[in-house]
Specification:
It contains 9 helices and 7 strands. It is α/β, with parallel strands linked by helices.
Amino acid sequence: MKEFKGKTAVVTGGASGIGRGLADKFASERMNVVLADIEESALELAVKEMQEHQHSVIGVVTDTMRKESIEVLLAKTIAEFGNVHILCNNAGIASMTPGLKGVWEIPDADWKWTMGVNFDGVLFGIQTFVPHMLKHGEPSHIVNTASLAGLTPGGGPYGVSKHGVLALTEGLARDLKANNANIGASVLCPGFVNTNILNAERNRPDALQTGKTGPADAQLEVMKGLLTAGKQPSEIADIVFQSIQEDSLYILPHPAWDDWVRSRVETILARGNLPEFDFEDIVRRQKEGEEF
């Protein structure tokens, strides 16, 4: 895409974090923006703040775990603004059930919630919006938010869901090209970003509660510090916007992770074992100024 003024962008998880950063960026380019989020109070506040800056924006309460909710999102967007040109399947969560040490211990509820939001939400967005974009034929783009966790070893629900988003986006890009579609596709794989993702439990559905509670472990507290010291959502949004302009498939905003990603691929090709992950080294290097 090269022209943005007057076009329409839809951002799931748009009330906060990376989603809000993307929404602000699109609005600054004079696009119509639709914020979709499951947290109604945060959504109302975000829409109000953007409207106070004279941006063309609406909010639609959306549960990305439900395909019918995303279908309503498309219908309301078309009714308000017409054709959709950018879709950011960005909504994501990280389950924080404490005291678990192995993938076999993780409750089914954690798997269902994490995969439902992080993977199914992206799939439903593609299934719902791509036919609309194909029909109107105007230059369009889809950005799916994965994570560096989608490029590095990780067997928990979050890592598995993000690996899935990466593979899904690669397939999407291939299929769009094979069909000569006027639609680009990108997968966003950020490292640490100053967002509220570790507090996602506030939005966990009642039916998927685990009943497991307890104090946060030490590594979780370190993770919170790493996120707080990470890139700002506005920085990520600028990089994403440039990638849309350049039609880049892979968006990796944190070059400090390149060596780790490279070592994983090299280990796979060497038919070796998992490379060791030095968490303390990441903490130390971030304190020294590297952006992870």
